[in-house]
Design brief:
By secondary structure, this protein is of the alpha+beta class. It contains 24 helices and 23 strands. Strand 1 and strand 2 form a beta hairpin. Helix 1 crosses helix 11 (308-345), helix 1 (2-22) runs antiparallel to helix 12 (356-383) and helix 14 packs antiparallel against helix 20. It is globular and about 100 Å long. The two termini are 28 Å apart.
């Protein structure tokens, strides 16, 4: 009895604490309830909508100037290059951002040795470092005034050091760089109404009408970018997102860091409550069994006029004592298991008093469990009259109900886990429209010319790699599977209005072959150089957005490409049409993609197809040697593309792992109850079994008889669980563009497994009772 309560409390403590931790992100920020981030819906002619947590840089500044409800505004933006050098150390730091001065106050950034934030990040080429980053490179020395070289050609002065952002921040930058109009940056980035590439935050006054601010944003941008919207047929719609909801409810393209699905936290919360309920069922059952054994005593107490209130108090007091003991044991267990939970399940537990949701939830569940587990046996007792209790003639219906509910819950959980596992495997193994087996991506400098002095004889590097027998193919590109292509261009066919918004993939003549993407019509790029007529290839999604059905119809057509800032526009010829593929996500259907042959520049990646007869480690070692000789000012980084792509399933895989661990606890509780039900039921029929054996019943007949009386309830549980699995999995699968069909095996397997295990468990007990000497079974002491 107490073991089940320990398991229930332990599960609820662990899961609810973890959930509370995840839901408390960014609540450390002062005035967090009034801080919002702007996100943008990019709507194109074809009805395609792409949503990103970014906006144009000028929105926040002008809103603050024109609307008194906006107390403050600030922004951060990703750097175009994340390669740096400090003295002789060359390194890459992904978590480095441009930042406005005002973001320091909005997000409560504490700058050490500087109480006046007004002079920070207000000049070109200045940077603030996180405390941990500064310590790694400068030890205990003061780094202020020292320089960091930012590739390709800029020295940046260190202005100060700030305390590390808390773990419960939705992003944790290591470096914050100044942003100034006098810096050498592309015009679409420098212009206030240029590219929508900035994460913009607003701090509002109390009681501000959020809808009003959103309307003002949309009117403001419609006025400023009217010409661009009219010429491209696109529209931007702006919304505000509460700061504290970013970590759990924002899963947009190009988030600053990995977030967690709020729906998955709800699933874990439901699992924790269900296990507490299962544990409570066991408690009630044991209390009921003990009541049945003591029925004579209880019947006499009622007959002699025992006060119901006193009996209720005794039941609740017993429940309280058992729960307190179980709580103490659970706390010890949590302490002992904390390291395992963190290292294997990624559970960061928070028992801080600031974690209000955990303490409120735990206190409510604990008190409700104490009361219900004491009240239900009392209620059952009060419904039986004195004579029935004295004769030990209470019905076993409650025990069967408890067993059914437990196994319905258990079978449903197992079914959902099987469904989740099947869906994840389906997505990982599904035909993506391209092949990423034996493909490795090498990070190379971004946005620099192939002829740059920062690179030593790039052509020799290319030739060395292509002549190495372990490498079958080499591609220069801007993204790899798992990355979001830039959607900063709109396209229309010249002379027509059809078009939309498309992701831009920079490709050379080997990209299609490297990924085994099918060319459906036209030709591939002919070489690795951009030609005068700016050739491009499109996928089938783009073809349909242009209004064509057959790939051949689009070949030779001219497209007008317009960059969203309105500053870049040019015409390109469609030379080929390829099959649909989408590098970014298996959760969505393919987007419009345009492949352009701009490979006179380096754009961030070399993609290598490895000969499957060669060891990947040997190939990487060879590439690294040649890389260091060619890019001696840049750190060597590589990725296995299949692993990189599968990172998008991290939340689902993590959820599945957690469920598999905790379903084991649910199984233990359920089968403890099953053992108890079986033992109690068969023991109460021992005289019946003895009489049957005296009249010639075989042991096998007795075992079957006893099994049927219990297994039928498990079978009923199975039938009830099937629609629950169907509905729960169906709702979860709706979030996927590609999803499995509801395989009957997903519904049948958990029920069959429960029946088989139950049958074996029950048979073990019933066999031991059935083989007893009938004289011993019939004997009345």
């Amino acid at each position: 009895m107490i073991f089940s309560i320990i398991v229930g409390i332990f599960t609820f403590i662990v899961l609810s604490s973890y959930i509370g931790y995840e839901r408390s992100y960014d609540k450390y920020v002062n005035n967090h309830e009034n801080i919002y981030r702007i996100y943008t819906e990019f709507c194109s002619l074809n009805g395609q909508v792409l949503t990103k947590p970014k906006s144009e840089r000028g929105i926040g500044e002008i809103l603050k100037e024109k609307h008194p409800e906006v107390k403050n505004s600030g922004f951060v933006g990703k750097l175009s290059s994340s390669n740096f050098r400090i003295d002789d150390d060359i390194f890459s730091e992904e978590y480095s951002f441009y930042a406005s001065n005002s973001i320091l106050d909005i997000l409560n950034v504490t700058v050490l040795h500087n109480d006046d934030h007004s002079k920070l990040l207000n000049e070109p080429y200045k940077v603030l470092l996180s405390e941990s980053f500064a310590h790694n490179f400068f030890g205990n020395d003061d780094p202020r005034g020292k320089m960091i070289f930012m590739y390709p050609a800029f020295n940046v002065e260190i202005q100060g050091v700030y305390k590390d952002f808390p773990k419960q921040a939705h992003f944790r930058p290591q470096m914050l760089f100044s942003f100034d109009k006098n810096m050498r940056l592309p015009p679409p980035v420098l212009d206030k109404w240029g590219a929508a590439e900035f994460y913009t935050y607003l701090e509002l006054n109390d009681g501000t009408d959020i809808k009003k601010i959103e309307d003002n944003m949309n009117q403001l941008v419609s006025s400023e970018k009217r010409h661009y919207f009219e010429s491209t047929g696109t529209v931007h719609k702006y919304h505000l997102q509460p700061l504290t909801e970013i970590h759990t409810k924002s899963h947009l393209s190009e988030e600053l860091s990995e977030n967690i699905q709020n729906s998955y936290l709800n699933i874990l919360l439901a699992i924790s409550v269900l296990i507490v309920i299962l544990a409570g069922f066991n408690y009630v059952y044991f209390a009921y069994t003990r009541m049945a054994k003591n029925s004579l005593k209880l019947g006499l107490q009622k007959l002699l006029g025992a006060d119901k209130q006193n009996i209720l108090v005794s039941f609740v007091l017993e429940s309280f004592i058992i729960h307190v003991v179980a709580l103490a044991c659970s706390i010890i267990l949590v302490i002992l298991m904390k390291g395992y939970l963190l290292n294997n399940l990624g559970f960061s537990l928070s028992f801080s008093l600031a974690n209000h949701s955990f303490w409120i939830g735990f206190t409510m569940v604990f008190l409700i469990s104490i009361f219900l587990n004491g009240f239900i046996p009392f209620y059952t007792l009060s419904r039986n009259n004195c004579l029935r209790l004295i004769n030990n003639n209470s019905k076993s219906t409650l025990r069967m109900y408890l067993t059914v509910v437990q196994f319905v819950t258990l079978i449903a959980i197992i079914g959902v886990i099987i469904g989740i596992d099947t869906q994840i495997k389906y997505l990982i193994n599904k035909d993506k429209g391209y092949d990423i087996d034996h493909v490795i991506a090498i990070a190379v400098p971004k946005n620099i010319s192939r002829e740059s002095r920062l690179v030593k004889n790039l052509n020799a590097f290319d030739n060395d790699l292509m002549n190495y027998p372990g490498i079958e193919m080499l591609t220069s590109t801007n993204i790899i599977p798992g990355d979001l292509p830039p959607y900063n261009y709109s396209f229309t066919e010249v002379g027509k209005s059809s078009g939309g918004k498309a992701g831009i993939i920079i490709a050379d003549s080997s990209l299609l072959s490297n990924y085994n993407i099918k060319l459906l019509a036209g030709r591939n790029f002919t070489d690795n150089k951009r030609t005068d007529n700016f050739p491009c290839m499109i996928n089938m999604k783009t073809l349909k957005n242009l209004g064509y059905e057959k790939p051949e119809e689009a070949v030779g057509r001219l497209l007008s490409l317009d960059e969203e800032s309105g500053m870049i526009s040019y015409t390109t010829e469609i030379v080929g049409v390829c099959s649909d593929f989408d590098f970014v996500s298996m959760f969505e259907t393919p987007h419009s993609l345009i492949l352009v042959n701009w490979t006179n520049m380096l754009w961030g990646y070399y993609v290598i197809k490895v000969n499957e007869n060669y060891n990947k480690a040997d190939v990487i070692s060879y590439v690294k040697e040649r890389y260091n000789a060619t890019f001696d000012n840049f750190p060597f980084q590589y990725y296995y593309v299949d692993d990189y792509f599968n990172q998008q399933f991290k939340d689902e895989i993590h959820l599945n792992l957690i469920l598999k661990h905790f379903v084991i606890l649910a199984c233990i509780i359920a089968f403890i109850n099953l053992l108890s039900v079986t033992w109690f039921s068969t023991s109460s029929r021992s005289k019946e079994i003895g009489i049957r054996k005296v009249f010639g019943a075989a042991i096998s007949e007795v075992v079957v008889l006893l099994n049927v009386s219990i297994v039928k309830w498990i079978a009923l549980s199975f039938l009830i669980a099937i629609p629950i699995i169907w509905v729960a999995l169906g709702e979860w699968l709706k979030s996927f563009a590609y999803r499995i069909n509801m395989d009957p095996m997903i519904l049948l397997l958990p029920g069959v497994a429960a029946l088989v295990i139950s049958f074996i468990t029950i048979s073990f007990i019933t066999y031991s009772l059935a083989k007893k000497d009938p004289v011993e079974s019939i004997h009345i002491k």
